[in-house]
Design goal:
Elements lengths: L23 E12 L2 H9 L7 H14 L1 H4 L8 E11 L4 E12 L4 H19 L7 E11 L6 E2 L2
Antiparallel strand pairs: 1-3, 1-4, 2-3, 4-5
Length: 158
């Protein structure tokens, strides 16, 4: 069994020492889903949400969240992000939106948590902007789809 890197031999929480790790080009892609009622989906697709452009606001929120990941998750290091993208796959016939976040960076650690943070906050922003008409929206399926770079190499979700 692999040892957890954020816990020392005494069981105390620690920030991982990355001072000797090699700086590499890193990439990560995360995904999440928000499900909503048909009426809410119609509002989203038609652009008639009272708070404004839901997806562009969620895109900006996701980008900002990815950049602030180390301020939100206590043991994450600040990293040198080179690019953040947030994309949406709207599936109106099934009343959900899949949200994707891609991170590119050059650092000794990072990219996965930033991608997952960007996805999470983009989904939460969609919820926030539409909650007045649909409090039963469900956010889920947040996962890492792919990552590359670093000691653990390339990962692609099966």
């Amino acid at each position: 069994m692999n040892k957890l890197t954020h816990i020392d031999d005494d069981g105390s929480i620690k920030m991982v020492d990355i001072s000797e790790k090699e700086i590499t080009t890193r990439f990560a892609r995360g995904c999440g889903r928000i499900e909503m009622s048909p009426d809410t989906m119609d509002m989203l697709v038609s652009g008639k949400a009272k708070k404004g452009n839901v997806l562009e606001t969620a895109r900006l929120a996701g980008i900002m969240a990815a950049k602030k990941n180390s301020d939100l998750i206590p043991l994450c290091h600040p990293i040198k992000i080179k690019c953040v993208t947030i994309d949406f796959d709207i599936v109106p016939e099934k009343n959900f939106v899949d949200v994707f976040c891609e991170i590119k960076c050059s650092d000794a650690t990072g990219a996965e948590m930033e991608a997952l943070c960007g996805v999470s906050i983009a989904c939460l922003t969609i919820y926030d902007m539409l909650k007045a008409v649909d409090k039963e929206m469900v956010i889920g399926n947040i996962c890492l789809l792919e990552k590359s770079g670093g000691k653990t190499g390339h990962f692609i979700r099966k």
